[in-house]
Amino acid sequence: LVSSARSEGITAFTADALGENHEVLRLFADLGLRTARRFEGPQVRCTIHLDQDDAYLAAVEARGRAAGVASLLPLLRPSAVAVVGAGRTPGSVGRAVLNHLRTGGFTGRLFAVNPRVESVLGVPSHPSVAALPMTPDLVVVAVPAAGVPAVAEECGKAGVRALVVVTAGLDRMQARALLTACRTHGMRLVGPNCLGVSNTDPELNLDATFAAGHPRPGTAGIAVQSGGVGIALLDGLSRLGIGVSSFASLGDKFDVSGNDMLQWWESDGRTDLALLHLESFGNPRAFSRTARRVTRRIPVLTVDAGRTDAGRKAAASHTAAAATRTMTRQALFTQAGITATRSVGELLETAALLHSQPLPEGPRVAVVTNAGGAGVLAADACAEAGLVLPPFTPAVIDDLLAVLPDGATVGNPVDTTAVVSEEQLAECVDRLARCSGVDAVVVALVPTAVAAATGDDLVRALTTAPGRRARPVLAVRLEQDRSVELMPAADGGTIPSYAEPQAAARALAHAARRAAWLAQPAGTVPALTGVESERAREVVEEYLAFHLEGGWLDPRTCAELLACYDVPQLPWAWAECEDDAVLAADRLRGFDGRVVMKAHWPGLLHKT
Amino acid sequence: LVSSARSEGITAFTADALGENHEVLRLFADLGLRTARRFEGPQVRCTIHLDQDDAYLAAVEARGRAAGVASLLPLLRPSAVAVVGAGRTPGSVGRAVLNHLRTGGFTGRLFAVNPRVESVLGVPSHPSVAALPMTPDLVVVAVPAAGVPAVAEECGKAGVRALVVVTAGLDRMQARALLTACRTHGMRLVGPNCLGVSNTDPELNLDATFAAGHPRPGTAGIAVQSGGVGIALLDGLSRLGIGVSSFASLGDKFDVSGNDMLQWWESDGRTDLALLHLESFGNPRAFSRTARRVTRRIPVLTVDAGRTDAGRKAAASHTAAAATRTMTRQALFTQAGITATRSVGELLETAALLHSQPLPEGPRVAVVTNAGGAGVLAADACAEAGLVLPPFTPAVIDDLLAVLPDGATVGNPVDTTAVVSEEQLAECVDRLARCSGVDAVVVALVPTAVAAATGDDLVRALTTAPGRRARPVLAVRLEQDRSVELMPAADGGTIPSYAEPQAAARALAHAARRAAWLAQPAGTVPALTGVESERAREVVEEYLAFHLEGGWLDPRTCAELLACYDVPQLPWAWAECEDDAVLAADRLRGFDGRVVMKAHWPGLLHKT
Hints:
The structure is a homodimer. Chain A has 3 domains: about 1-50, no CATH class; about 75-340, Succinyl-CoA synthetase domains (Rossmann fold, 3-Layer(aba) Sandwich), CATH 3.40.50.261; about 355-515, Succinyl-CoA synthetase domains (Rossmann fold), CATH 3.40.50.261. The first copy, chain A, is an alpha/beta fold. In chain A, the strands form 4 sheets. A 7-stranded mixed β-sheet of chain A has the order 6-7-5-4-8-9-10, with helices on both faces. Helices cover about 40% and strands about 20% of the residues of chain A. In chain A, a hairpin with a 6-residue loop joins strand 11 and strand 12. At the A-B interface, helix 4, helix 7, helix 10, helix 13 and helix 16 of A face helix 4, helix 7, helix 10, helix 13 and helix 16 of B. Chains A, B: InterPro entries: ATP_grasp_subdomain_1, CoA-bd, Ligase_CoA_dom, NAD(P)-bd_dom_sf, Succ_CoA_lig_flav_dom, Succinyl-CoA_synth-like. Chains A, B: Keywords: Transferase.
């Protein structure tokens, strides 16, 4: 419709929708076009502008972004928070959140709303939101599903500007009423069915979740749909020492989405790593635009959940939203430069590398080990992750042999033997890290009684490097307890250490892909003309009518399809016999007299 | 040659070889035939018997096995051990091994051999092996490579019965001299280029390695080519609480091999889990025969090292032996029922499951979670590992809903919600573990403040089960530090707990494959007659001469090739025109008058 209208010179659509008809309102928003809304009683009048180019879109987006980030302030930087539904029974979710806010040391005002008590956990309780001594910016709602719409409406009327609804199991009517209340009163909404939000900024110490512990303040932003995954990420990043800047468990994502959080981290001045766990994408276009921009500044990592039928079925039942299809999701990640991992562990392993080390310029890895077998495992792991173990030049080999003990083998992997000293290992790694044929160094170490007896500490050889190295260095310690650790280095930085060579190799491959992606120009979205989607659809449907399971188009149909999208094609002709072919060749040949002939036999693809 | 000779009625070959020509002697041994050897000066006369059937081979093998195990006694149950090459310099490998034997509490007699000192680390030292007050069963050799042959010869003459040579870097001549000494004097040899051996039997406490720590006594047998991987496995199994029965680092495997160790564990009465890490197979046939037998009794796990070109190159340089090709190795593992993992971590994760839980009868998994997102990750992981999440019957669903809190979703995964109590979770898991449509239960738990506040411990719900369950139960705790732990259960057993759903799913898939393998009949190796390998080779080579890159044989050549191996074929004929086809059909048709016609067009494979 938009295409037809544009080609007819129409510049705007006007639509009237019921304010509670959020499916239609969402559809309008998903168009990715500038849309003005005006509330007229229960109606919303939407004006959708069609006269937009790339630059205009960018400008609109920048304005929207600033507004979007500003609208998150009451959610992520509230000066007063109230918890509705915090009772006296241990094990209630509301009580858990209130306790968490209290023990987390929230620096603003904190209230409970509960008509039956005067205080909960030492926090003063009031009978209603309206009865609070001041209007909180943020209200955490933890009442049973049936009570949620009324609480939301009450909050809206009182001037509350953001809600976190942890309650799960809202039915269709309750969900609609909640959304209407938020839209009518202009409140941002996190949830429902979520774990809560945190902002570790020490000026704030906001921890409005019911996770088991408090996150360590730091530089990673986390947004998850699943609270469970959120807890795992909070724990993992705290343990690694990277820590968390802000956290949002988005649950059913009625309003605040991964997109909002990406924009927040882009401008909060505290986040240098973004971690997402999303099971569905409400607005893939907007998400892709934001992510493309943010990934140029900071790494954005995600767990690609719902890869299998079983996983998608589980996700659909979990977040009550049709999970986005695998192909679509993966295309989205690739296009936006998002680092997509297959598990929470892989996410943390990759985050540890991206947090601590420079990006490798390419996929060439030097492997160093004090135990040959560990070198074999590391070589396998690197090759399987798509990395390359280049051979060393004779000069490099001589250089390394000069510093290593007798018996050392300088292939790639370098086998230093078990008798290598701390100093020799440090020299070896430093030389490799300076070697122009190498993009990264993986050092696989095994503890032996030999090193123990001399007091040599091979791990220390990595962490006492003279100044931060220009190329990434990763340690693998097969006997390590945790799958990944960040070891403090003498220069104030850290070195990632992995229990499995696979984990190190996978993380490094992600880093190399990120480097390759950053090296590409950003690109723009061209305005395409001459696109005949409808005709293309007809061509495809006509074919599928006779080929129910799909197949290969014949060259003529293929050419027709390409023409629908104005894809340039060389002049060609179809010939069914020798004479036709000669005539066609005569007609088509270029100034050098040459033509290309392609044979075609239905169903036969490879012709040699 | 053997085939031709057999078909001519020849029953034995006789061959004379130089005793030091171990390549030829190994070739004879690798035939898998009964071979008698008699030393005649520097010559060895070998008689290779050709008249053997399956039963005969089994009998021979059983005898050899008993002899083989007996020959390992001085190595793995020595009553006196000497270390040659233990000096006073900290950091020498010999000193490290001696110290390890001492601190490990070896119950037998312990000596050092070093002419320059009277004692090392409080252990009496003697100038030579011959000068020791008693002849040790086992000598650990840690002198420089050049000195190894003389020490080996001295040991042989003194009546020593087993050597562990930790020294690396022997050249060809030194290696040959070492082997000759061992063969001439009938000594078993571990190494060279190895970490040593351990036997944790408390009557013995033999720890003759230079690993960093002592292994915890237990039930896993470990044999590795790489000392580094050995250290990782010793550490990992000790940490898991499975512990180690005996350990051998085989290094360059001049004599004692994985095969020997499998036979030892088969009969030592202490081992219920065998872990191998092999980069090469000297005698794949013998190994396969032994492994097929041992895997029926205890699980045999291995790390499949050298899967990639990079890994194989590294392995070749590490153990100085051409690594066995991937295809060959994997076929060997599959045929022998060996559980082949891709990393040390996966090996330990799988060992933890096989050690602690019954085998699943099939691939059907029920997933239970208190956090929907963790359920999605677990569902993905199970599906990717080849497991199945079956839907539950209405009866099971009702049954589960009756015990779970409001809001719980009983699909597969079962989402109990965060407010599930310890008791409810235990009930749910028990019901699923008794459900006939389920082969295993994976429980993905996330710690929340809700459970913490009520004092409910969801993990305890798994470990306090009423008696050992008949089906395996696995926990996944995304926030867990270690990749796998064995949690003590109330019944004295343990429950494996994984940090990653992938790890749990992979381990479970390995267990399901082992169960399927055990369910197959053992099978025998038939005596094949009418095999014309030479003709088959000709057919293949003729084809390859014209098709350098291989391809599909035409039906006539294919039939010819099958005939070389006496593979039964239905009567068939080749027809090039309609009349030929009618005549052939007339000739070939069965009593019901039916024939099958197959079209053929060169290069066209799929004809529909």
